[in-house]
Amino acid sequence: MLDDDTSSIIVGAGNNRIAINLKPLRTDQTQSMMFPSVLIDMGDIEIEIRRTNKPTPVRSKSVASRMYEHGKQKKIEEKPKTSQSYWDYSTLHGPNMWSRIFPQLQCKKFQSPIRIYTDQSEYESVLARHPFIFDADENCCQILENTGHSFQVSGNGYSYITGGPVLDEYQFLQFHMHWGSNDNEGSEHVVDGIRSPAELHIVTWNTSKYKTPQEAVASEEFGGLMVFAVLINIIPTDNIHMDKLLELFPKITHKGEKINFDYNTISLRNLMPENIQDYYTYDGSLTTPMCNESVRWIVFRDKIGLSKQQINQLRQLKHTCTSDKSMNGYITRNYRSLMPLNGRIVYRSFR
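Structure tokens predicted for carbonic anhydrase:
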């Protein structure tokens, strides 16, 4: 039974009746018959049911449609979660916990790093006929920073990268490194069963298709980024090309510390193997949250070297800020666990 003034509903008959009082929306709201709350009057007891201000989530009909919608909404969902959620390489917040800290990672299937076997990769002759062009000015690298997860070198000097598995043009964004607590671990990719002591990542972004690096990262399209992975061996003497950079590390010991450096301190090309035309390539993701699946990976066949002393210098960086009085806090292990291929093919440019 609905009263004439539509302010209440009477449920029941005789003495077994309950009055449900309805409170209409304000007159300035468009849907006048949508009530923000319902008051159930039971004599000595009143129960008020309020309408939530939050939109009701829509449940996907299938796993496939849920993954599709996840991709469409990724830009909106990931930005606030990245700023609100903490991650690192510890037991509590490390790679094995990232899918709990960021539940959207559970839907991702084409993640990095991976295990690569030469005899299981597929030779692609087109790669050999389409060599890399990697052109970068000496002033390409300008800023050295401790991100709390690694060191990072960035800059906006001239760079032009194309060739290999891509036709688009790319520009240098930043490079960083991954390492372990000892010389038997450290690299993210494992090639033919061997995990190297460290791995350098040179990150470039697609300037042909995207206006900003952020747009390229969020694209979730393989090739938004192209990341060059350089595996690192231990050599008897220091790598002279890394010396000038490592000498600056005492100035960025703590998380958040950042310095500018001279244009001739480091050369990108000197951080890569002499032969950059022999490599493995596959479609994957960033190896740090939000692990966007927007990367075309280039894993060079040949390696570069650092001395034991130089790799130990990496382990002197801290993941803590200067205000943190902890005696420890060193970044001793910052690589992600291996991810399944899930049907992907790894191609190689060499026989």
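The radius of gyration is 28 Å.
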